[in-house]
Automatic annotation (TrEMBL):
Binding residue positions for substrate: T131, I132, D133, R168, M175, G176, R177, E229, R250, H256, M257, Q258, R259
Record's signal peptide: none
GO biological process: canonical glycolysis; fructose 1,6-bisphosphate metabolic process; fructose 6-phosphate metabolic process
Binding residue positions for Mg(2+): D109
Pfam families (alphabetical): PFK
Gene, per the UniProt record: pfkA
Main location: cytoplasm
Domain Phosphofructokinase, residue spans: 10-282
Annotated positions binding ADP: R27, A28, V29, V30, R31, R160, G191, A192, E193, R218, K220, K221, H222
Family per record: Belongs to the phosphofructokinase type A (PFKA) family. ATP-dependent PFK group I subfamily. Prokaryotic clade 'B1' sub-subfamily.
Function: Catalyzes the phosphorylation of D-fructose 6-phosphate to fructose 1,6-bisphosphate by ATP, the first committing step of glycolysis.
Keyword Transmembrane belongs to the record: no
Name of this chain's protein: ATP-dependent 6-phosphofructokinase
Length: 330
C-alpha cells in the first residue's frame, strides 16, 4: 500500500518483550531518518507511552553508544488499551497531534497487530521483527534470537558441568512463549539428551524416564533435558523423574537472563539493516508493511499477509536434533 503524502516526521517505538539488538534498530531508524531529511521522534514505553504522549525528539547523538547495549533505550511495555478500538483511535490521534506521519514499530506479532490497526486508521506504519522467540512467520530472522540463544547455550554448558560432577539429571527450561526455536537450537548446540518442544511434545514422560535409565546403564554421567517454556512445569517434572529413576534431578529455569546482554554481531547487523530498511519503505511511500529476512535477502510484506502466515518448526532440523541425541549401542 502506498502512503498518501511525503513523510516528513517519523516515530519509532519498541513494544512487547525487549530483545538484544532493539537499540541497534532504534539507532538505525533515527540515523537513516535524519540522513533522509526527516524529523525523528522516539516514543517511550511502546503503545502505552504513545497514548500518554511520552514522545521525544531524537538526534543522532541520542543514539550514540547504544549499539552494544542490551534492552531498549526507549523502554517497552505491554498495553491492554491498544487492543481496544478506543485505544487504537487514541494512539492514531496522538500520532496526528505530534505530526508523526510514519511509525516504525519494533516488536513481535502482537505489536504488528497494533501497527496494522493504526494503518487502518490512516497512520503509515512499518513493523521490524524484534523478539527472542523467532516466532514471526514472515521472517527467518528476528532481532534478539541470536544473542538469546547464545546466552542460553552458555548457561546450559555451565549447568551441564555441575550436572556431570554430581551425576545428575538436569531439566533446563528456556524461553520462547509458545514456540520451541530457542529449545531446538540449544538442544542441538548443547548436545542435549532430550529436547521437549511445544510443537512436538507428546507428554509421554515414561519415554523420557526410560531414556534416562538406559543412558545411565550405558555409563552416561549426566542427562540434559531442554524443556521449552511452552511446556513448562520443569520443577514438578524433575520431582517425578527423580522419584521414578532414583537419579537426583534438578530443574533450572533460565528466565529473563535470556533477554538481556550486549547483542551479538549478527543481531547488531540485522537490526541495523532492518531499521534502515523500514525507514526506506516509509520514504518510498510504503505503509502497512513488515520487514523480514528470507533466503539471504531483506524483504517486506503486507502486514495483513504477514500476520496470516504460519510457521512450523523445520521438520528436518527437528529430525536431525532427535537423531543426534538418541542412544546408540554402537
Ligand atoms: P509481541 O509484540 O512481542 O508479540 P505482545 O503480544 O505482548 O508482544 O504485544 C505487544 C503489544 O502489542 C500489546 O501489549 C498490545 O499493546 C499490542 N497488541 C497485541 N495484540 C494486539 C491486537 N490484536 N490489536 C492491537 N494491538 C495489539
Ligand atoms: O516474547 C519474549 C518473551 O521473553 C517470551 O519468550 C516469554 O514467554 C515472554 O516474553 C515473557 O514475558 P514477560 O517479560 O512479561 O515475563
Amino acid at each position: 500500500m502506498a502512503a498518501e503524502k511525503k513523510i516528513q516526521t517519523i516515530g519509532v517505538l519498541t513494544s512487547g518483550g525487549d530483545s538484544p539488538g532493539m537499540n541497534a534498530a532504534i539507532r538505525a531508524v533515527v540515523r537513516r531518518g535524519l540522513a533522509l531529511g526527516m524529523k525523528v521522534k522516539g516514543i517511550r514505553k511502546g503503545y502505552d507511552g504513545l497514548m500518554n504522549e511520552e514522545i521525544i525528539d531524537m538526534t543522532a547523538r541520542d543514539v550514540s553508544d547504544t549499539i552494544a547495549r542490551g534492552g531498549t533505550i526507549l523502554y517497552t511495555a505491554r498495553c491492554a488499551e491498544m487492543r481496544t478500538p478506543e485505544g487504537q483511535e487514541r494512539a492514531a490521534e496522538v500520532c496526528r497531534k505530534h505530526g508523526i506521519d510514519g511509525l516504525v514499530v519494533i516488536g513481535g506479532d502482537g505489536s504488528f497487530a497494533g501497527a496494522q490497526k493504526l494503518a487502518n486508521l490512516g497512520i503509515n506504519t512499518v513493523g521490524v521483527p524484534g523478539t527472542i522467540d523467532l516466532d514471526i512467520a514472515c521472517t527467518e530472522y528476528t532481532i534478539g534470537f541470536d544473542t538469546a540463544v547464545n546466552t542460553a547455550m552458555e548457561a546450559i554448558d555451565k549447568v551441564r558441568d555441575t550436572s556431570t560432577s554430581h551425576e545428575r539429571c538436569s531439566i533446563i527450561e528456556v524461553m520462547g512463549r509458545n514456540a520451541g526455536y530457542i529449545a531446538l537450537w540449544c538442544g542441538i548446540a548443547n548436545g542435549a539428551e532430550d529436547i521437549l518442544l511445544p510443537e512436538k511434545y507428546d507428554y509421554d514422560e515414561q519415554k523420557i524416564i526410560n531414556n534416562i535409565i538406559q543412558n545411565r546403564k550405558r555409563g552416561k554421567k549426566h542427562h540434559i533435558i531442554i524443556n521449552a517454556e511452552g511446556i513448562g512445569h520443569s520443577t514438578s517434572m524433575a520431582k517425578r523423574i527423580e522419584a521414578a529413576t532414583g537419579i537426583e534431578t534438578r530443574a533450572t529455569i533460565l528466565g529473563h537472563m535470556q533477554r538481556g546482554g550486549s547483542p551479538t554481531c549478527k543481531d547488531r547487523v540485522y537490526a541495523s539493516i532492518m531499521g534502515a530498511y523500514a525507514v526506506d519503505l516509509l520514504a518510498a511511500g510504503k505503509t502497512k508493511r513488515v520487514v523480514g529476512y528470507k533466503n539471504g535477502e531483506y524483504i517486506d510484506f503486507d502486514i495483513n499477509e504477514a500476520l496470516a502466515m504460519n510457521k512450523d518448526l523445520p521438520p528436518y532440523q527437528y529430525e536431525v536434533a532427535r537423531s543426534l541425541s538418541a542412544n546408540y549401542d554402537r
